[in-house]
């Protein structure tokens, strides 16, 4: 195999609680991750030298900060692999949207190059590498909807409902450090068990970042209020994207047709198994 095209799906945080702040500045979280059948796509072509070349660049993102390149070079360094790759990224997910786009791109790079370079590393090994790139990378590597704790890296697979979602991006980028550094951010939600969260269900789920993001970013607040006319919205991650859970695709597309100019939106189905891993099984 010399070429491989693989998806890098979006994720939603169906709920997000912040239960404390650690001495190193990171926050203790409890969250439910679920994938969407919508995201970026990466194309890989194996090279017989050790050069890793990303044909597509992201505006404002230096190569040294690009998670795709960092993931590929980390995999080379970890394994001593002398092969390289030409990589092209079809970017659909917004930067700073809370959909995990960069983390998903990194995870797909690790998983795809592991296959393309015949490294035969298991998912736990790849997830450990991915954690060095970001707290969300392991869930994309492991490929199953999950209850997550710690900084989001301690994962327990779960089966969630899989509704249709309308996902709305209000055209801005939210700074995660700004949100987590905000004095007014809720940081003391009492921890709950996974069983309790699942038993209480979607109608009770919330995101502790939501009030702070809406206060700091009026564009998010405006989009939130607009969505309230159709269905109860939730913030994913630290934003900027908001989502509504709908019973069927037609209801979601009715909202999509009314999205105002300057906003971006899409309709997608929730998935408990990542589209990345569904694609792997077809190889």
Topology:
Layout: E1 3-21, E2 27-47, E3 52-54, H1 67-79, E4 84-90, H2 101-116, H3 123-131, H4 137-142, E5 146-150, E6 154-157, E7 164-169, H5 176-181, H6 194-200, H7 210-216, H8 218-227, E8 233-235, E9 242-246, H9 249-256, E10 264-271, H10 275-281
Parallel strand pairs: 3-4
Antiparallel strand pairs: 1-2, 2-4, 2-5, 2-10, 5-6, 7-9, 7-10, 8-9
Describe the fold and architecture:
The protein is α+β, with helices and mostly antiparallel strands and 283 residues long. It is built from ten helices and ten strands. It has helices at 67-79, 101-116, 123-131, 137-142, 176-181, 194-200, 210-216, 218-227, 249-256, 275-281; strands spanning 3-21, 27-47, 52-54, 84-90, 146-150, 154-157, 164-169, 233-235, 242-246, 264-271. Strands 1, 2, 3, 4, 5, 6, 7, 8, 9 and 10 form a ten-stranded mixed beta sheet that branches. Strand 3, helix 1 (67-79) and strand 4 (84-90) form a beta-alpha-beta unit. Helix 1 (67-79) packs parallel to helix 2 (101-116) and helix 7 (210-216) packs across helix 8. The longest helix is centred in the middle third of the chain and has 16 residues, at 101-116. The protein is globular.
Jot down its keywords.
Ribosomal Protein S5, domain 2; 283 residues; 10 helices; 10 strands; 31% helix; alpha+beta
């Amino acid at each position: 195999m010399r070429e491989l095209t693989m998806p890098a799906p979006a994720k939603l945080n169906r709920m997000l609680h912040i239960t404390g702040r650690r001495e190193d500045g990171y926050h203790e979280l409890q969250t439910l991750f679920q994938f969407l059948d919508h995201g970026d796509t990466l194309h890989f072509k194996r090279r017989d030298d050790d050069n890793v070349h990303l044909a597509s660049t992201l505006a404002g993102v230096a190569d040294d900060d690009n998670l795709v390149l960092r993931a590929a070079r980390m995999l080379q360094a970890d394994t001593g692999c002398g092969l390289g790759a030409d990589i092209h990224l079809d970017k659909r997910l917004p930067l700073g949207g809370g959909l995990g786009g960069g983390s998903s791109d990194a995870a797909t790079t690790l998983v795809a190059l592991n296959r393309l370079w015949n490294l035969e590393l298991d998912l736990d090994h790849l997830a450990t590498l991915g954690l060095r790139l970001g707290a969300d990378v392991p869930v994309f590597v492991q490929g199953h909807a999950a209850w997550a704790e710690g900084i989001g890296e301690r994962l327990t697979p779960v089966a969630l409902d899989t509704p249709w979602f309308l996902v709305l991006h209000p055209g801005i980028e939210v700074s995660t450090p700004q949100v987590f550094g905000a004095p007014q951010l809720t940081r003391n939600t009492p921890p709950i068990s996974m069983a309790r969260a699942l038993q209480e269900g979607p109608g009770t789920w919330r995101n502790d970042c939501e009030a702070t993001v809406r206060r700091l970013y009026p564009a998010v607040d405006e989009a939130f209020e607009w969505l309230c006319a159709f269905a109860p919205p939730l913030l994913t991650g630290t934003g900027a994207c908001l989502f509504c859970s709908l019973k069927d695709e037609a209801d979601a597309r009715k909202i999509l047709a009314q999205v105002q100019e300057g906003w971006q939106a899409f309709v997608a189905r929730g998935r408990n198994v990542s589209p990345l891993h569904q694609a792997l099984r077809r190889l």
